[in-house]
Design brief:
Helix content is about 45%, strand content about 15%. The chain has six helices and four strands. The strands form two sheets. Strands 1-4 form a two-stranded antiparallel sheet. Strands 2-3 form a two-stranded antiparallel sheet.
Length: about 150
């Protein structure tokens, strides 16, 4: 049995509602392959204990993810990932990720703060993917998705 532990990071100063941060962080974990089909999301109670959010906030986020077809509730068992958003070239084991980590390291070495790096990345994304709806710096600086631990046991 594979156990996945996901911890959501809620940034109360971001202006983004907590439920939306949970949705965004779950999608990020799905894109990076941190969460895969069959993985169980943490219970609303455990998210409340770790992140100090109301359990209903987590349930609202999970309902949004369910509407998008990404997760499914299983009565008495929990909420499980239905499908991934990962692309082979977007995982943390891809060469692009390695290049990005190296770039972020150089940026930090040059004295840039995390917010500076996020602003640069958001600006580059806007320039590259400009389609009439720009990515905002707030979205780009939302807390990193999750800390994940996978373990196998009986």
């Amino acid at each position: 049995m594979v156990v996945v532990i996901v911890e959501f990071r809620i940034d109360r100063r971001s202006g983004v509602p907590a439920f939306q941060q949970i949705v965004q962080q779950t999608k990020q974990a799905l894109r990076l392959g941190v969460l895969v089909p069959g993985d169980r999301l943490p219970t609303a109670k455990s998210v409340a204990e770790v992140s100090a959010v109301n359990p209903n906030t987590t349930l609202k986020a999970y309902r949004e993810l369910e509407r998008e077809g990404l997760v499914e509730p299983r009565p008495g068992q929990g909420t499980f990932v239905r499908r991934t958003l990962a692309r082979p070239s977007a995982g943390t084991d891809s060469p692009l990720y390695g290049e990005l980590v190296a770039w972020v390291s150089r940026a930090a070495g040059a004295g840039l703060e995390q917010e500076d790096v996020a602003a640069l990345v958001a600006s580059a994304m806007q320039k590259q993917y400009a389609t009439g709806t720009a990515t905002t710096a707030t979205t780009a600086t939302t807390a990193t998705t999750a800390t994940t631990t996978r373990s196998t046991g009986e």
